[in-house]
Design goal:
Layout: E1 10-14, E2 17-22, E3 27-31, H1 34-49
Antiparallel strand pairs: 1-2, 2-3
């Protein structure tokens, strides 16, 4: 019987690539578009779950939010 799981996906841009990461499983992938990186991450997670010894975390174990911080020095910028 096949089970369906829901995991988080964190995506950020590095140069021309989008990098995606599943924090619950510590699995990552990349793609040239957001859609492609999500597709690639799903495939990487599916392959990861094929391992017989994999430990699947309980649902809701990862919480995400946005924080705001201030910093006086503008020594480098972050582009999105």
């Amino acid at each position: 019987m096949q089970e369906t799981y829901k995991f988080s996906a964190v995506i950020h841009k590095e140069g021309k690539w989008y990098v995606s990461w599943c924090p619950e499983l510590d699995v990552a992938s990349q793609g040239e578009t957001i859609e492609k990186t999500i597709e690639n991450l799903k495939e990487a997670v599916e392959l990861y779950l094929e391992d017989e010894d994999v430990q699947i975390p309980a649902a809701g174990s990862i919480l995400t939010t946005i924080i705001e911080v201030s910093h006086d020095k503008a020594s480098h910028t972050v582009s999105t």
